């Protein structure tokens, strides 16, 4: 969803989203909110409170290691029960990367959109193009089956039931409802389509209207169960709209998958419960996805120690007291937002060794208008050096090496398992094989020798002279 898709930021928006806009009118609306450029990376940043690149999401990785204190794990310390509903996309290759393993008490949805069409004719789990219609969904125990209806409606009905079941209970709860809408394919329910000209733009707006209806259902469930007054509601988009959904990201250039402003500058508003003394209005402080976890920790009176974010509660109460740069990294782009939020350096590289660089200058703290400034070598080097310093710091893999007692250099690595698993061309594992006397002569290994083992991920061993992976 782009920042130009609703009247929250654009009074002349084409799509009418009354439920979302009504909720925003009761909220603190952040006008300078930054995400990652793709959905998977943004979800990783949200659930960990850390830069996605710290956990190797650039933009897609295989999971978040179990040693990280995720948002639901943190909230459990204050007695919260946590529910995941909808899209996961933070790892689907291993059960150790799924919602239950990362702290959620319940889960209902899909690990990745490629599984929404279900298995093939032989019952095998295969990657297929996504769908909103009659989707296959799974729960926290891995039960996978097909449901009749539209994905958006099925998911919101589940969340509404969770809200109703929580009414009257003393245990606090956290629900992470992750819409698929308005992601492609553009398949809204027919009742949300307007007119007869069902262009891609109209279908996109219909998906937004259907999402708005789901938000209305959740708000009504909160009110009917008597929980609306003391429920914190956060609404955000994981990245900007795709380029072909113009003018969704206006006035920004770029879209999903890019660290241009249009790909990462998205809607965020927070409706604070009674007692926090934060009136409805706008806040122009640059904030980021990593700030959600420390915000909820702050409200639950918990300490969030391993985070790259800051509490939005403190920012909203003292909007001009904080200054920090924000960074972005993917396989072919990098971005640096200056500490005062007035400049963004953007750099993209291509396979033919071409490099595109630009410097954006925002006219004021409050304005979303910017201009492209001339970029000299000294200024570019300044931002590249800041980026390099940050990158050197976040790419360190926090692991513990425990040597074996025989003193032969072998040992066990623990911590951040997924950072050591083969993912994509970004990562390489090299293993040197030697014979028994460590010479270059070929000496067969007797029996079985384990080279690399990661539970649920990787098993590399030598057996009778053959390498098994």
Structure description:
Helix content is 22%, strand content 20%. It has 469 residues and is α+β, with helices and mostly antiparallel strands. It has a five-stranded mixed sheet with strand order 6-5-4-3-7. A five-stranded antiparallel sheet has the order 12-13-14-15-16, with helices on one face. The chain has a four-stranded mixed sheet with strand order 8-9-1-10, with helices on one face. Strand 12 (326-329) and strand 13 (333-337) form a beta hairpin. Helix 4 packs parallel to helix 5 (200-224). The chain is globular, with a radius of gyration of 24 Å. It starts with 17 loop residues before the first helix and ends with a strand. The model has no long low-confidence stretch (mean pLDDT 89).
- Could you give a short account of the major beta sheet? 5 strands, mixed
Strand content: 15-25%
What is the H-and-E element order? Answer: HEEHHEEEEHEHEHEEEHHEEEEEHEEEEE
Unreliable stretches (pLDDT < 50, length at least 5) are: none
What's the assembly state of these chains?
single chain
The structural class is alpha+beta
Give the overall shape, derived from the CA principal axes. Answer: globular
In percent, how helical is the residue content? 10-25%
Q: Give the beta-strand count.
A: 21
Number of helices: 9
